[in-house]
Write a structure and sequence with these properties.
Length: 393
């Protein structure tokens, strides 16, 4: 299947009140976020950092879609006319905000926070997983949500040195006449390398190097020095980002485990499967996977007894993105955003299973093992092993 179901937008989809109500994190920490861009070329790095922060009265909340250009990119990705689809998306979703403190004061911690590097899916960008990223940050993680520059984001940009301008990198389809595997395989390698560069960024900050943020934001990266535990680093992603996380384990020994949300396994070459050295938690939805993809996951779980595969019943591919929290029935139907499972319960299952897995493999002192049953697929709406796949998918 296509790695991200395409929205079917109709002109009448504005009917009724549409909004996006993202949940607050349930953990003990308030959450802040800041955008970080390092370097002036596509070889640099662009990410949104979610982190535990101190409470601040009247804190600003960031926009969920940070710029109008992303609406145009989503329209392109969905094979829709920018002329009407981008303004429609902007009108429906442009004013939605993420319930976190924008550039909020970083909360110091004597124990240091573990780090998660997060990779988005095809046609997405750095903010579309704010619900799961802020949930994990509320439990005491720093989460670096990348915006990939391999032409798989619906849109992204660089700020060339000295130009005072932006250069936008559009979403790119598989070129005609090119085999999809080779095109996507090259992208997944670039994405995994960006995950490794994100880790290097935090290592540089921790070593006291001055790392200028091209975006000139109010968040000073030097506050992260001595605050991130670089011995406890995981990589996580959804769909194309899920397989990116698996490949990042091969490329970087410092990543101790991966959490793959409904991973699109297609782009990874077979020769690399025996090379995956660390455990992976595959959290699948009920409707997306193909038999080929599931076989690849099982190949990894047969090699490593700590690799787990679970399926969340009543969920669809978009259930693991913020789109699942669209409150307007029309818009959520348009985006194929909801399964039958309540989205808040779906987020709960995903984040708690991930926390239990991370505690186990990052050796955390927290009591996330209270959710160990979820790792074994025990509980309401979750089952062990991969979803049942019909070969005609």
């Amino acid at each position: 299947p296509d790695p991200m179901p395409l929205p079917r937008l109709g002109r009448g989809s504005m009917g009724g009140t549409q909004s996006l109500a993202l949940p607050l994190g349930k953990g003990p920490h308030q959450v802040g976020c800041a955008d970080v861009m390092v370097g002036h070329t596509w070889q640099g790095l662009f990410l949104r950092l979610f982190y535990p922060c101190l409470p601040r009265a009247g804190a600003e909340r960031p926009l969920w879609i940070p710029r109008y250009e992303y609406c145009g990119g989503l329209a392109d990705f969905a094979h829709r006319s920018r002329r009407w689809c981008a303004p429609l998306l902007n009108a429906a979703l442009g004013s939605c905000r993420v319930p976190v403190s924008w550039n909020g004061p970083f909360k110091p911690c004597s124990r240091r926070y573990p780090l998660i590097v997060f990779s988005h899916g095809l046609g997405a960008f750095r903010t579309l997983y704010s619900s799961v990223c802020s949930e994990l940050a509320s439990w005491g993680f720093a989460v670096a949500a990348l915006e990939h520059r391999d032409h798989s984001a619906s849109a992204t940009y660089v700020c060339p040195a000295g130009a005072g301008s932006e250069e936008w990198i559009p979403y790119q389809r598989v070129p005609q006449g090119q085999k999809e595997f080779y095109f996507r395989n090259k992208q997944v390698h670039q994405r995994a390398e960006e995950c490794v560069r994100a880790l290097r960024l935090f290592e540089d900050i921790d070593s006291g190097k001055s790392v200028p943020n091209v975006l000139h934001q109010d968040f000073d990266l030097s506050v992260l020095k001595d605050s991130i535990d670089l011995t406890k680093v995981a990589v996580m992603g959804h769909s194309f980002g899920g397989v990116t996380a698996v490949l990042a384990l091969v490329k970087e020994p410092s990543f101790r485990c991966a959490v793959a949300l409904d991973a699109w396994m297609f782009p990874l070459e077979n020769a690399l499967y025996p090379e995956v050295p660390k455990p992976v938690l595959f959290i699948n939805t009920e409707k997306f996977q193909t038999p080929e993809s599931v076989a690849k996951m099982k190949r990894l779980s047969s090699r490593n007894s700590q690799t787990k595969i679970i399926t969340v019943l009543g969920s669809v591919h978009q259930s693991q993105t913020d789109f699942t929290f669209l409150t307007g029935k029309l818009l959520s139907r348009i985006f194929g955003a909801r399964g039958t499972l309540d989205p808040y319960k779906g987020l709960d299952i995903t984040s708690r299973a991930a926390l239990a897995f991370l505690q186990r493999h990052l050796n955390l002192e927290e009591e996330f093992h209270q959710w160990d049953d979820l790792l074994e697929g025990i509980g309401d709406s979750v089952v062990p092993e991969a979803p049942f796949c019909r070969s005609n998918l």
